[in-house]
Amino acid sequence: MTFCGTIRCEVISSSIVTRTQESSPSGAIALWIVSEDFPKLLTQVEKQGNIVEHTTLSEDRTTQVVDTEARLKNLTAYRDSLRALLGRPGLNIKDSVEIQEKLTDVQSDLDGETAKRKILANETERVAVEIEFRVGDTRRRRSAFAPLWSSLQEAGETLAESLGSVITFVVFIVPWILLFLLIGWLLRRLWRKRRARNAALSAAQAGS
Description:
Blueprint: E1 9-17, E2 26-34, H1 38-48, H2 62-86, H3 93-125, E3 126-134, H4 146-207
Antiparallel strand pairs: 1-2, 2-3
Helix pairs in contact: 2-3
């Protein structure tokens, strides 16, 4: 922003984001700069760090500029002719009012086209620039033990996934085991009752 004050540019907006636990500090700036001074700005930006991405977009506005200038020329000539008519001697009131109304409309259109030409001049003679600054996170330097910690982390994740699969299987199979045990217990009890009844019946027959 300080360097922008030394050349022909205008800062539109700027922002700074401090370091957080999830991201490194960053900043952004948007500005308008005269086309001739853009190389100076780019050289200054290159001194601040490494340029990781540089994108340039352009749009041909020649037709719009030519059309606007032609409308300005025609409206100006029309306005001057209306002024000349308004200044003629012996002009009646009705014609004077009509000419004055047309002159007001023409002047309004002329002001609109003049403003449009100024906007086109800003867009064609100046360059819109957006710059993003990103600071590398120096806290995340790779150490000699990084592969070991990475392997341990992967092993822990694998163990956790395996344990999760076992827990899922146990939760799925336990109700069925309990159901089978209950059915087996009921069948065994019925079988014992039937056996005891058969034994009692056999004893009664033997006694008779």
